[in-house]
Amino acid sequence: MTRHRIAVIPGDGIGVEVTAEAIRVVDAVADVEWTSFDWSCQSYLDTGKMMPDDGLEQLRPFDAILLGAVGYPGVPDHISLWGLLIPIRRAFDQYVNVRPVKLLPGVQSPLRDRTAEDLQMIVVRENSEGEYSNVGGRQGLGDYEMALQTAVFTRHGVERVVRYAFELARQQNLPVCSATKSNGIVHTMPFWDEVFQDVAKEYEDVPSEQCLADALAARMVMAPQTLGVVVASNLFGDLLSDLSAAVAGGLGIAPAANLNPQRTAPSMFEAVHGSAPDIAGKGIANPVAQILTAAMMLDHLGETQAAVAIEQAIERALADPGARTPDLGGSATTRGSADAIIAAL
Ligand code: NAD
Ligand code: IPM
Ligand code: MN
C-alpha cells in the first residue's frame, strides 16, 4: 500500500468530532500518515492568528488536506474564514469545489418517492474568485455610508471551472447546467455565459443548458431528475450545494472536495457543512458527510478501491436504522454511526 501524508485541520465545533471518525474509517482501509494542525477559532483567541504566518508553507508538502470546519461564535466569520479556509483554497489554486449528492439507503429525502436514479447532482462550484473577493471597502458617513464589494470574474478563472464541469459530465454521462443571473447582474454574469458557450462548443457530445439560478433552485427541488452537473460561481455554488444536500437528505451526508486539478499544490477535502455550533459537543453530529469526503480524498490519491469500499460500507450501514444519527431520524451517536460503518467495511 502506498503511504499518503495528509495534513488534518479539525478546526471548530463538529468539524473536530466528524474528522476524528473519518480518520478512523480511512485507517481501516488505507495507509495514511496524519499530521494534525490545531488551527481554529480557539487558537485565534489564544494567539491572535487563525494560522501561523508560515501556515501555508507548512501545508504545501502534504499530499492532501482534510479539514473539519472553520468558524465559531466568538470570532467573526469573516476573520476566521479569511484567516484560514479561503487563503488555503486560493494559495493552492483549489479552483474547483466538487459537491456531489445522491440518495442513500435509509436516508429519507423530502422528495420521498424519488429513487437513486432520479437524483444524482454534482455541484461544481468556482472556488477561487467571483463574489468572494476582498476588493471593495466602506466609505461615507451616516445616510451616505456604503459598502462596496467587487465581484471578480476572469476569463481564465471561468473557463477552467466550466471545462472541469464538462469533463466531469462527460465522464459521468450527465448533462451540464450553468447557473447565472444574467437578467439582474449585467456585467459579470453575461461574461460567464459567454465563456460557458465558448467552452460548450468543445463538448458537443455533452448535453448542456444555461439556467437562471433562481428558477434552478426551484427545479432542484421540483425536478432533480432533470439535472446532473451544475456549474456555478463561488457564491451561487455555495448556496446551491447546501440546497442540493438538503434535497438528498441533509447536510449530514453531503461531501465536498476543493480541488487543484493540475495538482500543483495539495487539494483540500471538507464536507459541505460547517461547525454546527447548535449541536457541537453533544456527540450527535452525523459523520457520514466527512467520511464520504475522506473517500473523495482517497479517490483523488489513487486509492479508488478503498474509496469505493467506504461508500459501499456507508450504504450497508445506513440501511440499518441503528446506524443513523438524529438528523436522519435515528438515535446513533457520531461514534456509533462510524462504528457501524467500520463494521460494514
Ligand atoms: P452548519 O452547516 O454548521 O449548520 C447548519 C445546520 O445543519 C445546523 O442546524 C447543524 O446542526 C446542521 N448540521 C450541519 N452539519 C451536520 C452534521 N454533520 N450532522 C448533523 N447536523 C448537521 O452551518 P452554520 O450554522 O450556518 O455555520 C456554522 C459555522 O460554520 C459558521 O461559523 C460558518 O461560517 C461555518 N462554516 C464553515 C464551513 C467550512 O469550514 N467548511 C462550511 C459552512 C459553514
Ligand atoms: C462552505 C462555507 C464557506 C464558503 C464559508 C464558511 C466561507 O460555507 O465551504 O461552503 O462559503 O465557502
Ligand atoms: Mn457553504
Quick recap of the structure?
The protein is an alpha/beta fold and 345 residues long. The chain has helices at residues 14-29, 41-47, 55-59, 77-91, 155-172, 188-200, 213-222, 234-248, 288-300, 304-318, 334-344; strands spanning 3-11, 31-36, 64-69, 96-102, 120-126, 136-139, 146-149, 176-180, 208-212, 229-232, 257-259, 267-269.
Description:
The structure is a single chain. The protein has eleven helices and twelve strands. The mean pLDDT is 96. It is globular and about 55 Å long. It is an alpha/beta fold and 345 residues long. The chain has two domains: 194 residues, Isopropylmalate Dehydrogenase (3-Layer(aba) Sandwich); 140 residues, Isopropylmalate Dehydrogenase (3-Layer(aba) Sandwich), CATH 3.40.718. Strands 2-1-3-12-11-4-5-10-8-9 form a ten-stranded mixed sheet, sandwiched between helices. Strand 1, helix 1 and strand 2 form a beta-alpha-beta unit. Helix 1 crosses helix 9 and helix 10 packs across helix 11. Bound molecules: nicotinamide-adenine-dinucleotide, 3-isopropylmalic acid and manganese (II) ion. The site of manganese (II) ion has 2 residues, from helix 8.
